[in-house]
Amino acid sequence: MSASGGTRAIVAALLANLSIAVAKFVAFLFSGSSSMLAESVHSVADSGNQGLLLLGGKRAQREATPQHPFGFGRERYVYAFLVSIVLFSVGGMFALYEGYEKIKHPHELEHWYWPVGVLVFAIIAEGFSFRTAIKESNPLRGKKSWKEFIRHAKAPELPVVLLEDFGALVGLVLALGGVGLALLTGDGVWDGIGTLCIGILLILIALVLAVETKSLLLGEAAGAEVVQQIEAAAVAGDTVTGIIHMRTLHLGPEELLVAAKIAVRHDGTATEIASAIDAAESRIREAVPIARVIYLEPDIYSESEAAKGPDPEATPGGPTAPPADH
Questions:
Q1: What average pLDDT score do residues 150-158 get?
Q2: Computed from CA positions of residues 135, 174, 41, 16, in that sequence, does the dihedral angle turn out positive or negative?
Q3: Contact 293/68 with Cβ under 8 angstroms?
Q4: CA nearest 192: which of 208, 174, 204, 172?
């Protein structure tokens, strides 16, 4: 995965949101539109979210310490989870409150051309940001659908920016619809309804982000394709005859821990087995460069133990269990 691609998408989204936030606030001051106020807060929250993602990426690059021997790669997951909280609390809840107030106390829009002009500008700017996020995501997405990419991506930045930009574009359309209906009917309630729809949309996106980043925080295994590459690389030598069982864990988006019990020939000497383990580690790192931390334990494969089942605690000589995607 390319961290630079995620950074470019974040910076593009940050620049777009900052410019849009200023324009929306100006439009709100001139028109009094609650949709514009909700969208202004939405853009400010999005700008803060992109700042959090950049901060998380920077802090994740710190060197490992005795207290944190596996490094700080997971900080990117922590800050991505904070983004979902900010989007929920600041963006979604504020929009619901503002929409409720506008429906309860509607008033006619003033200087309608301000919100309409700003919304059109914002749609263009967000479209540019969304296009950048799509362009940076496509090389990593491969043949996966967008749903699969967002669900199974190990780097959180691009899925977060994609969902934020998608939500922003839909929210802008809802705001434009609310403002347009309020102008056509002369009833400010439509502006409030548009604001409520924006709030519901933001909360739904925040919940999706929270669920996906929580899974990353808990610790996810490598994907099935990566596991197959590791297994093929480990048993490519003469001494290592198979994988008894293996566990993988993402220490960060671009850092993988591999722990495996490998089957070796029973007649191998200690020197031969040690050399075989070193060679297997080299092959794994070559096949899967993100496999930074590798622990291989040699053992003699036992058919009787393997027949007891896949539980590695009950059957230390048993087969490996397939990884499960969240």
A1: 84
A2: positive
A3: no
A4: 174
CA dist 20 to 50, 89, 128, 143, Å? 14, 20, 12, 33
pTM for this prediction: 0.72
pLDDT digits (tens, 9 = 90+) for 221-278: 998 889 999 999 998 767 788 888 899 999 988 899 999 998 887 777 888 888 889 9
Q: Is the pLDDT of residue 162 over 50?
A: yes
Specify the residue for token string 């499960």: 324
Report the alpha-carbon distance of residue 80 to residue 282 in Å, rounded: 33
Minimal CA–CA distance to 11: which of 132, 164, 139, 168? 132
Q: Return the structure tokens found at 133.
A: 């996020």
C-alpha to C-alpha distance for 10 and 52, rounded to whole angstroms: 10
Tell me whether residue 275 is exposed, middle or buried, using C-beta atoms within 10 angstroms of its C-beta: 0 to 12, 13 to 18, 19 or more.
middle
pLDDT for 219 equals: 87
From the list 101, 9, 100, 91, the residue with the least C-alpha distance to 53 is 9
Using CA atoms of 180, 184, 187, 190 in order, give the dihedral in degrees to the nearest 10.
-30
* Residue 85 token pair: 């909280």
315, pLDDT greater than 50: no
Alpha-carbon distance of 139 to 1, in angstroms, equals: 9
Q: Residue 50: phi, psi to the nearest 5?
A: -65, -35
CA–CA gap between residue 209 and residue 282 (Å, rounded): 36
